[in-house]
Amino acid sequence: MKKSGYRTIFHIYLIFFLSLLGAIIAAIGLFYLLVTVQTPSGTTIRSDWPKSFTEDFRSQIIFIDDKAQVKQTGIELLQENDVGLQILDHSGYEIFSYQKPERADDTYSNTELLYIYQTGQLKDSESTSFIGTVTNNGNDYAYILHFPMKISKVTMYLNADRFTGGKTIAILIVGMLFMIVLILGIIYGVWTTRIMSHLTASIREIATRSYLPVQSHGAFRNIYDSLNTLDTEIKASDRLREQTEKMRKEWIANITHDLKTPLSPIKGYAEMLQEHGTKTKEQCERYARIMLRNVAYMETLIDDLKLTYQLENGIIPLERQTQNFIRFIKELIIDILNNPEYERRTIHFEATEETVLISFDQTLLTRVFQNLITNAFVHGDENTEITLQISVFDTILQIVVSDNGKGMTAEETGLLFQRYYRGTNTEHKLEGTGLGLAITKSIVELHGGTISVSSIPGIGTAFQIQFPIN
């Protein structure tokens, strides 16, 4: 066993020893409280003091002309301890009293005296009473001392043959209990140390990704369940990181290729313009248009990278203006359909309200809805139609952009808003930066909204966006 194992056992030992010591101290304290009482003067005495006081008080009773009297020292003892006294003749009649309680009777039957002797209590009294006897000229007299405290008399019947060595037996029992606790502490310490060693090894295996889930049903079940959950989450995170890293590398390769692609015609046509020889005006204009188109494509790529960086670091300026959102969407749809590339496409528009005033950045939200609409056209076929529905629910503005395109699998929709991801369900070349929908999601969240996607392969895709109206 390693040194840490011994240290663990020592700590468990220490806990058990301190627990046992605390139990012993508590038992001693409880025993002390049980076998001690306080006198009216505040002095703490043993609880059997009234009995011994009663037996010793016999010497304070004297008889003068066969009349019971109490010595002056006895009176002082009664006064000092606030004890009441009754002296009874052989018939139970009171023949002398001093400071007796109000509830004390003047005469007692044998049954009542026996009850007082056995219980030490007068009926309905808060005091404790002890009975003693004294003899004068062959006549027996009883006396009752009433103490201003409550003491319970407990009678135990034990085996006389075995209880002659009661003190030895008590010490033996305490010793056996101590040894049992000590042995159980050792067993528990070894068992706990093994469990802790296994837990330590499990944590080390999780760190090295070699952990195997454990099904435990013991006291440490919750810990093992937590370790199993932690291992599952770490492995899922590892897979996500590997997937993201793979997409990042593919994105770098693609973006490098996409940046080089427009550079080739720009460089080629620039060299053609540089060559000697006469170029017609039409040729120059055609070369210039091609070069400008490729430059614009490069600018789009660079703008996407810049916007992604700004959104990621929260440094993009948000220029909000309160305006009619319905009118904004209508104008945006008209602008898209006026584009020669989409002029033969169909966009259906539905709205429950004519006017919905909210505060938003028009430039950024234009980017959002252009991304969603043009993506549906690019990844669909020529018969793909888009439906844009706007509804208001209390303080929520909901926009649903749906299409009847090819749809996507659950795996594809799970990756859709991740950076560097490019759709795969298309017959066209995968152009673009792979940042469009990630940018869309960031812009929506920047406006305090949410965006989600649902898709069924062969049926179509629907994006749901919600903004708080206030």
Automatic annotation (TrEMBL):
Transmembrane segments: 12-35, 169-191
Cellular component, GO annotation: plasma membrane
Claim: Cell membrane is one of the keywords in the record: yes
Primary site of residence: membrane
Protein name stated in the entry: histidine kinase
GO molecular function: ATP binding; phosphorelay sensor kinase activity
PANTHER family in alphabetical order: SENSOR HISTIDINE KINASE CPXA (PTHR45528:SF1)
Catalytic activity: ATP + protein L-histidine = ADP + protein N-phospho-L-histidine
Topology in the lipid bilayer: Multi-pass membrane protein
PROSITE patterns: HIS_KIN
UniProt subcellular location: Cell membrane
Listed SUPFAM superfamilies: ATPase domain of HSP90 chaperone/DNA topoisomerase II/histidine kinase, Homodimeric domain of signal transducing histidine kinase
Swiss-Prot/TrEMBL keywords: ATP-binding, Cell membrane, Kinase, Membrane, Nucleotide-binding, Phosphoprotein, Transferase, Transmembrane, Transmembrane helix, Two-component regulatory system
EC number per UniProt: 2.7.13.3
Boundaries of every Histidine kinase domain copy: 254-470
Chloroplast listed as a keyword: no
Top EC class for this record: transferase
